[in-house]
């Protein structure tokens, strides 16, 4: 909480500084909400402020510039204005506003997106005794009134406390709430660190990253390319496909050493299987779906005259009668079908099943990134069918396998996160308790340090996430 906030009862106290995560996050948040925001409003009176959350290494701010788009050439001038505002050393005061009064203030300042945010706070019951938190920059003058920003906080008590080294790096388009059906805003990115040395190191790393951009190297080395007709899918060239097959052979050899039985399953599956597995209820929006009952009247209208008058609303009301298929987003449901064939004894367990399965996921196009975020991928996937008593031992074996696969490829400096149950999930909590404990206990026995990622598990179970470092120190989540 803010330094100005009264301590009403006995409490443990810790002073946050730029040397720890909480302090650095607070400084970055204040820089976004009270410095960048005011700089933009002073330079661009028509700017309509939206949201400015902190992210890894800094923050971004989404802003509606109306009919006058912002150019990246203007970032230097905005930076200079930010430093001018910081030099003022003005105090920041937290205030609790009546929602109607705060919405009236933002309407007057031309910040319609802030009005929407206040409305959402009220609708969701997130007020503080019926009021909404905001911060006033005392002594600022924004066309005759002091600058006020909607924020829960905390903030530093005055601008002179912001001792960060920062740089505005780039701008991008971003939809309000991340929904392409909404208005597109301008997103300004900023990186901010505790000192100039850390900032310079990060900027140098970014320069090196641009040189090593795998999308650029893929074209130059004639390995693969991606084009707009197949978003998120690679066109593998002969050299690249040779590397792909060699890597697949390497993985297959390691799986065989650990007695995995390789299978292959269909790519297109009826929705009934996804309903049974829970994917239809929990993952449907990320799946590619198709239905001849819907598509044929569109692509072959002359041959489907009777269906022309059927509306999508009518079809939706009788969805169970439609023959809907999906491109599998993962292999789990199909592997269970193989296990279900025939009778099984406890003597058959553990049964280790693997597949180089081609999966399709309907990722947002704005999130796609070369081979790192795709719509089509080949998973070197596996599922282990075992008894509860065998679970911990199987996890230990799997950790050894992963280590033996990564090490020869040069990935020895990795970190592991335990992603625990999300809010939207299937299964009984007792199963989640047992599964999370088995993962944690196995890692402890294997000597693998764990960090928690609360709520980041899949809807069907917790997971261990392996985060690998690349040649310039960036971290990427790979195996799970």
How would you describe this protein?
With 480 residues, this protein is α+β, with helices and mostly antiparallel strands. Among the domains are: 21-210, Threonyl-tRNA Synthetase, Chain A, domain 2 (2-Layer Sandwich), CATH 3.30.980; 386-480, no CATH class. The chain contains 14 helices and 20 strands. The strands form 6 sheets. Strands 1, 2, 3, 7 and 8 form a 5-stranded antiparallel beta sheet that branches. A 4-stranded mixed beta sheet has the order 18-17-19-20, covered by helices on one side. A 3-stranded antiparallel beta sheet has the order 4-5-6. A hairpin with a 5-residue loop joins strand 19 (463-469) and strand 20. The longest helix has 23 residues, at 21-43. The model has no long low-confidence stretch (mean pLDDT 91).
């Amino acid at each position: 909480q803010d330094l100005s906030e009264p301590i009403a009862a006995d409490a443990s106290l810790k002073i946050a500084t730029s040397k720890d995560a909480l302090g650095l996050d607070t400084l970055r948040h204040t820089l976004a909400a009270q410095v960048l925001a005011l700089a933009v409003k002073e330079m661009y009176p028509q700017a309509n402020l939206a949201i400015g959350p902190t992210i890894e290494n800094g923050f971004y701010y989404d802003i509606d510039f109306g009919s006058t788009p912002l150019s990246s050439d203007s970032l230097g001038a905005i930076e200079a204005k930010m430093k001018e505002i910081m030099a003022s050393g003005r105090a920041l005061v937290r205030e609790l506003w009546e929602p109607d009064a705060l919405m009236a203030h933002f309407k007057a300042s031309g910040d319609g997106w802030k009005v929407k945010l206040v409305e959402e706070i009220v609708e969701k019951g997130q007020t503080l005794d019926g009021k909404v938190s905001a911060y006033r920059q005392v002594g600022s003058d924004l066309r005759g009134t002091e600058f006020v920003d909607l924020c829960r906080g905390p903030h530093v008590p005055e601008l002179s406390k912001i001792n960060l080294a920062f740089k505005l790096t780039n701008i991008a388009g971003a939809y309000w709430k991340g929904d392409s059906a909404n208005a597109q805003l301008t997103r300004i990115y900023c990186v901010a660190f505790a000192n100039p040395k850390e900032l310079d190191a990060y900027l140098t790393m970014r320069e090196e990253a641009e040189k090593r951009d795998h999308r650029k190297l893929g074209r130059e080395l004639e390995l693969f390319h991606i084009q707009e007709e197949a978003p998120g899918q690679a066109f593998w060239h002969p050299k690249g496909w040779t590397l792909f097959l060699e890597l697949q052979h390497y993985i297959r050899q390691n799986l065989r050493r650990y007695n995995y039985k390789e299978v292959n399953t269909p790519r297109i599956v009826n929705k009934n299987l996804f309903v049974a597995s829970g994917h239809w209820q929990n993952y449907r929006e990320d799946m590619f779906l198709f239905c001849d009952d819907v598509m044929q009247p569109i692509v072959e209208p002359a041959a489907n005259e009777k269906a022309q008058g059927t509306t999508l609303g009518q079809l939706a009301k009788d969805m169970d009668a439609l023959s809907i298929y999906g491109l599998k987003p993962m292999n789990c449901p199909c592997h269970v079908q193989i296990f279900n064939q025939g009778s099984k004894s406890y003597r058959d367990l553990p049964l280790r099943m693997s597949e180089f399965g081609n999966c399709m996921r309907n990722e947002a196009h704005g999130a796609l990134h070369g081979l790192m975020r795709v719509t089509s991928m080949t998973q070197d996937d596996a599922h282990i069918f075992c008894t509860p008593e065998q679970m911990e031992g199987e996890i230990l074996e799997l950790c050894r396998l992963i280590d033996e696969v990564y090490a020869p490829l040069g990935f020895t400096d990795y970190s592991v996160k335990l992603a625990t149950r999300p809010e939207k999930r299937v299964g009984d909590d007792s199963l989640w308790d047992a599964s999370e404990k088995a993962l944690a206990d196995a890692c402890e026995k294997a000597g693998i340090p764990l960090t928690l990622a609360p709520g980041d598990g899949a809807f069907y179970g917790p997971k261990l996430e392996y985060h690998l470092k690349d040649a310039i120190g960036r971290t990427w989540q790979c195996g799970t």
